[in-house]
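Q: Could you write out the predicted structure for this multi-component system? I'm mainly interested in how the pieces pack against one another.
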Amino acid sequence: MIIAIDGPAGSGKSTVGKLLAEKLGFIHISTGALYRAIGWKAAREGIPFTDIPRLLDLMKRTQLDIRRGKNGSYEVYVDGVEVTSVLYSQEVGNLASAVSAIPEVRDNLVQLQRDLGSKGNVVLDGRDIGTVIFPDADIKFYLDASPEERAKRRWLELQSKGISVDLDKLTEEIIQRDVQDMSRAVAPLKKAKDAIYIDSTGLSIEEVVEKMLSEVEKKLSMRCNP
Ligand code: DC
């Protein structure tokens, strides 16, 4: 079974994806990690995102891998080195969003994402999982929340890590990222026609996971009693 969760930045895809996968005994993969890894490495090497040949060369010589870590969460490896925590800063998120708008970069990552999901019993989250990567996914969710709520969640997360940032600036960045992810020419973020829409504004993580689980159970019982 392949479960796709798409939605905008900060909608909670990774958090609920991880919990949903745990409850089902599935693997969880957050595909944004791949774009983050490429954006991060390109920036480290000083490659401008306008230089497509150098970006493609970088991708050719970069070994990307996502593996299940000790605590069940996925870990991201770039050239054999585990860099998961480095990739999850706001800055790297913005780099990922910019690099993900480049069609050649997206093309290069399609097969890897399909390979990662092909073992089955997997929850994949991203922007185009239900529309492009796995258009035949067994269940598709589109997880949404207002920009203000998403910024607030991110703000609380950073606060809990002792990092203080301006909430208005965060909200602005989230809105900017939405525009970038939804308006790009290739595989823009949008709800697949057959995706189940969940607005998580005002819902707890557990409530969202419960909603998703009940849809999965519905699907499984339809399979057993067609
Ligand atoms: O889910 P995330 O915040 O880790 O994703 C970072 C960026 O990567 C996001 O702004 C857009 C891009 N992305 C994408 O274009 N397609 C995906 N399937 C996943 C992420």
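A: Regarding packing and overall arrangement: Residues 9, 30-32, 35-36, 93, 96-97, 100, 126-129, 177, 181 surround 2'-deoxycytidine-5'-monophosphate (CB under 6 Å).
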